[in-house]
TrEMBL record:
InterPro entries: COPS7/eIF3m, CSN7_helixI, PCI_dom. One of its GO terms (cellular component) is COP9 signalosome. Residues 1-163 form the PCI domain. One of its GO terms (biological process) is COP9 signalosome assembly. PROSITE patterns: PCI. This is COP9 signalosome complex subunit 7b. It is found in: Cytoplasm; Nucleus. It comes from Diaphorina citri. Its main location: cytoplasm. Keywords: Cytoplasm, Nucleus, Signalosome. PANTHER family: COP9 SIGNALOSOME COMPLEX SUBUNIT 7, COP9 SIGNALOSOME COMPLEX SUBUNIT 7/DENDRITIC CELL PROTEIN GA17. Belongs to the CSN7/EIF3M family. CSN7 subfamily.
Amino acid sequence: MVAEKASGVGTNPLEQFVLLAKTTKGAAAVELIKQVLEAPGIFMFKELIDMPLIKELDTSPHAGYYHLLKLFAHGTYQDYLKQKEELKLPEMTQLQKKKLQNLTIVTLSLESKCIPYDKLLKELDISNVRDLEDLIIEAIYSDIIHGKLDQRNSSLELDFAIGRDINPGDVTNMITEFQAWSDSCANVLKAIETQIGKANSEKHQHLAHSNAIDMEILNIKKSLKNQTNQSQDTDDMMGSDNVVDKIGKKYKIKSNRGTSNTKFWQK
C-alpha cells in the first residue's frame, strides 16, 4: 500500500504567532502556545521559544506550557510520557498529540529510513496497526513525511521528512560530525589529486615513448633512403662503364679505368 502526498505547508506560518508574542504575556501567551501546537503546517518553534514574553512563562505558574512548547521543538512522544510528571506538562489535545507523534516519526527517520511497525507502535504509544497506519497516512498527506507503507514487511519506508528545530545540546555533536565529514572529503580530494598526478605522469611517459618511437622510425626511413640512393648511384656508375666499354670496342679505344691515361691505336 502506497500513500502519496497531497497538500503542502505554508512558507512561514509561525510568523503571525511570533508577531503576536511580542505583546502577549501570561495566560494570553499560554493560549497562543496552545494555538501554535494545534496549528497545521507549523512544525518548528524556535522563533517563538526565543521571544522574551514567552520565555517569562518558564518562571511562572504556566511553566508547563513553556516546557511543552520546547518538547514540540526537540522532543518525542516518549519524552512527553517520561517527563510529564517531572515538568508538570499539561494534557494535550488530540490534535497536539497527533502532531507530536508525527514529529516523533520525523526524529526516528534520522536513525533509519525503514522503521518497523513494532518500533513505531512502541515509540508512539499506539496499540494497533490500523491506528498507526492511519496516523502515518495523515502525516504523508500533511507533507510531514514522504514514503510508503510496506504492509508485507510491516514497516514504514521513508523518502523524505521535514526538518526540526536544532536542540542546543546537539550543536557540539553536529560540529563534530561536520568536521569528520569535512576531513573525509579532504582525504577523498587528496586521493583524487594523487590519482590525477599519476595519470598525468603516465601520460607524459607515454608521449615521450611515442615520440621516441616516431623518431626511431624517421631515422630508419632516412637510413633506408640513403642506402637506396647509394645503390642507385652504384647502378648508374656501372651503367656508365658499360657505355664506355661499348664505345671503346666500336672505335678501338682502350681505357684504363682508375687512371687518367687513355691510349688510342688503330688496327
